[in-house]
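Fold this sequence, please.
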Amino acid sequence: MRLTGITSTAAVAACFMAAPLPSYAQQNGEWKWMIAPYLWAASVRTDLTTPFPVSEGGTRFPDLIDDIDGAFQAHVEGQNDRFGMFADFTYIGLGDNKDFERLNTDSQLDAYLFEAAAVWSPGEDWLKGIELFGGLRYIDVDLSVNFDPHDPRFGSLELNPNDSYSDLMLGARYTWAFAERWRLTLRGDGSFGDTDGTWNASIVGQYQVSYGQWLFGYRYLSVEVEDQRRKIDLTMSGPMVGFGFVF
């Protein structure tokens, strides 16, 4: 991962929940903020397609990586009346060994997702009902795959491409306040540009307390990137839990 790329991009973007602030956060038109770290117990599927054979007929490797080494998520959001903004950062570390029909693979994948968006609340009730958002999604992919063919006529091969992708992101979320302290937020968004398409969906429950809110729910994320060297399909889904500190 290139540190200069992270630094410059993090200045304008940071990825999965865009959860809203508590209803008491907005007072007299001032801006209020929330910082929320997350744990995401996600199941993973990573498919790789190469443009050239590494063994007889071997160019597509489904489910190449399905063991997660580590994941980190952080969410920052500010709101004021009908407008707001949020930023997300997600790090995903994956590693796995696979035994295919004609070869073995040893793979490592580090993926960094940054998101930044402006939020508009068209309804009369603040942080209730529908909200629309748009912004930037940035993805950095660092993939390393060692191919070890079973047939000794074929030598070992290593692929180690590092690429970054910038997309325009558009989405919406809907918040339902069904009790005094309870809310439920549905979010869906997509992004297009350098990637072939990235899709994100989540359902998040919020329980409000005096100093913030507990957050828990379920998230689905699908990323598809392709260039002349390879095509990667990364899908993650699973439950998540976190706490939002409001100030």
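The chain has one domain: 3-246. The chain is about 5% helix and 65% strand.
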